[in-house]
Specification:
Helix content of chain B: 40-55%
CATH class of chain A: Alpha Beta
Structural class of chain B: mainly alpha
Mean pLDDT of chain A: 94
Structural class of chain A: alpha/beta
Strand content of chain B: under 5%
Low-confidence stretches of chain A: none
CATH class of chain B: Mainly Alpha
Strand order of the largest sheet of chain A: 2-1-3-4
Shape of chain A: globular
Helix content of chain A: 25-40%
Number of domains of chain A: 1
Number of strands of chain B: 0
CATH architecture of chain A: 3-Layer(aba) Sandwich
Largest sheet of chain B: none
Oligomer: heterodimer
Radius of gyration of chain B: 12 Å
Distance between the termini of chain B: 15 Å
Radius of gyration of chain A: 17 Å
Mean pLDDT of chain B: 92
Number of helices of chain B: 4
CATH superfamily of chain A: Thiolase/Chalcone synthase
CATH architecture of chain B: Orthogonal Bundle
CATH superfamily of chain B: ACP-like
Number of strands of chain A: 4
Low-confidence stretches of chain B: none
Number of domains of chain B: 1
CATH topology of chain A: Peroxisomal Thiolase, Chain A, domain 1
CATH topology of chain B: Non-ribosomal Peptide Synthetase Peptidyl Carrier Protein, Chain A
Largest interface: A-B, 11 and 13 residues
Order of helices and strands of chain A: HHEHHHEHEEH
């Protein structure tokens, strides 16, 4: 365990985790909840890698169930009343789930492929096949994969890094086993 | 005027999610963009919405914001002269 927070409220929890993990990114507090969760989870893994300051060939394959629904709801609330129609630019720039991939890519200089899929449930097979394909075809040196889901105050993040010479076997059984440890 | 400037500083911090910045740390003539508070283009749009929502000032040309959002002092002067609520 790298951090344990007692605050049930997500914004306070993620703020404590951000400070505890000594992550530094000027735009962090401008992100929506999904992006904060994905960004910090990715940062925990990527800061352990010896990344180049120029460019890193690490692909991103993320997935979830709620898409960007949490932020979409906030945006909808700001435009549903014609007399109080004030959409917030800072909110509606985050109404796509893959925006968080952009934030991670900017921080870690990743110019490689990235995709964000929406599934009814955690889909280990899809992540496995996609990551394998990228590695076998030399489209990426490593692939950061996983599931980052946020809706209202329910959230979970499960990310793992795959490479050709990794220590743990890369197959759907192992991915599911690790996911079910959550 | 002084009350309006304090109000603006508090709103800027809250609405633009400026973590670890307090009202006391923003001087009236500090640059809001560039080397000052380091606000970006999305922040500028957010300030345009704030002018409309809280003070009834609608900017027809977003480029007008460049001058108006120079500092809290300039913003307050503009709001005092043009507010409809």
């Amino acid at each position: 365990m790298i951090f344990k927070g007692d605050d049930a409220d997500f914004p306070n929890f993620i703020k404590s985790a951000y400070k505890h993990l000594e992550t530094s990114y000027s735009k962090f507090f401008k992100m929506d909840n999904l992006s904060k969760l994905a960004f910090l989870a990715a940062d925990v893994l990527l800061k352990q890698e010896s990344l180049s300051e120029e460019e890193n060939n690490i692909a991103l394959i993320f997935s979830n169930k709620a898409s960007s629904l949490d932020t979409d709801r906030k945006h909808q609330k700001s435009i549903e009343n014609q007399d109080e129609y004030f959409p917030s630019p800072a909110v509606f720039v985050y109404t796509l789930p893959n925006i968080c991939l952009g934030e991670i890519s900017i921080k870690h200089k990743l110019y490689s492929e990235n995709s964000f899929f929406i599934f009814d449930r955690f889909n280990a097979e899809h992540l496995y096949l996609y990551a394998n394909n990228l590695l076998q075809n030399n489209k990426a040196e490593k692939v950061l994969c996983g599931w980052v889901d946020f809706d209202e105050n329910s959230y979970e993040a499960f990310l793992y890094l795959v490479e050709n010479k990794g220590e743990i076997a890369h197959n759907t059984e192992e991915i599911n086993r690790l996911y079910n440890l959550l | 005027m002084s009350e309006l400037k304090e109000e603006l500083k508090a709103k800027i911090i809250e609405q633009l999610n400026l973590e670890d910045v307090s009202v006391e740390e923003i001087a009236d003539d500090d640059a809001l963009f560039g080397d000052g508070l380091g606000l970006d283009s999305i922040d500028a749009l957010e300030l345009i919405v704030m002018l409309d929502k809280d003070y009834g000032i609608r900017l027809s040309d977003p480029k007008e914001g460049r001058k108006i959002f120079e500092s809290v002092q300039v913003m307050a002067d503009y709001i005092e002269a043009n507010r409809t609520k």
